[in-house]
Design goal:
By secondary structure, this protein is α/β, with parallel strands linked by helices. It has one domain (10-254): Zn-dependent exopeptidases (Aminopeptidase, 3-Layer(aba) Sandwich). It contains six helices and eleven strands. The relative contact order is 0.17.
């Protein structure tokens, strides 16, 4: 008999949340790294509280900004309920960093030596439900004759491996540059934040999985937004950034392609 492993219990809750499901905006907001929560079966993965509070476990401030944007835009928001250390829903199962053994300077003891059944449980119980919810939501909107624009929200650290990052907001894209081009052009005129194209990460870093799976595959306009997390560490900063991004997206979508 093959080995089986059950990851989630009823007490853990589900792996994905949908908010404002009836939002009228064409924008569909996605936050893959919204939470630092780990399923109870994984304990702490052998990490300290400090490590589990850090960027390796989640994107601090990203969900708060996404929620404010959802309210401003009247957009549907879909987000992951577990830490990316359990499974990074912006990575396919074959990617090494989908369940990383090392993240930045931290080793992840609980991700070493997993059995095939343990790995598969994380794929089946976290990744696949998240992807299925995105696909189901997009299909329902398409069937109803609605446009969908995929916008994923992330945050990044001001310093990475000892190097300071000047860019404050990154606008990331894969092969479809339409929305990114418009956003960067408008942002350049306003000069409110230091913006960068495909910074501090780009497609070569494997970060555009959601855009490819649900945007490019369906012919939908899409973009990934990265915000430096020192700018969104409190409610004031989160509100300012959400207002800036919501306005930038709205205006960009009114410009003829």
């Amino acid at each position: 008999m093959s080995e089986q492993f059950q990851l989630l219990s009823p007490a853990d809750g589900g792996p994905v949340t949908v908010e404002n499901a009836k939002g009228r905006s064409s924008v569909l907001l996605v936050c893959e790294h919204a939470s630092r929560t780990l399923p109870a079966a994984l304990g702490t993965l052998g990490l300290s509280t400090e490590a589990l509070d850090a960027h390796i476990a989640w994107d601090p401030g990203a969900l708060a900004v996404a929620r404010r944007m959802a309210s401003l835009l009247d957009a549907t928001l879909i987000f992951q309920n577990f830490s990316r250390l359990a499974y990074d829903c912006n990575r396919p199962p074959e990617a090494a960093d989908a369940m990383p053994e090392v993240s930045e300077i931290f080793e992840i003891p609980g991700n070493r030596g997993m059995s095939s059944a343990e790995r598969q449980a994380r794929v089946d119980e976290i990744y696949r439900p998240f992807q299925q919810m995105l696909a189901k939501t997009i299909k329902a909107r398409t069937d109803a004759g609605r446009d969908t624009v995929i916008v994923t929200i992330h945050s990044f650290t001001p310093v990475y491996k000892g190097v300071s990052r000047r860019v404050e907001v990154g606008i990331l894209h894969d092969r479809d540059t339409r929305l990114a081009d418009q956003m960067l052009a408008l942002a350049g005129e306003r000069q409110e934040f230091v913006m960068g194209r495909n910074q501090p990460y780009g497609p070569e870093d494997g970060v555009t999985h959601t855009l490819k799976e649900h945007g490019l595959a369906n012919g939908l306009m899409n973009v990934m937004i990265e915000v430096r997390n020192d700018l969104i560490k409190d409610e004031t900063g989160q509100g300012v950034m959400a207002g800036f991004l919501a306005g930038l997206i709205s205006e960009s979508l009114t410009v003829p392609a």
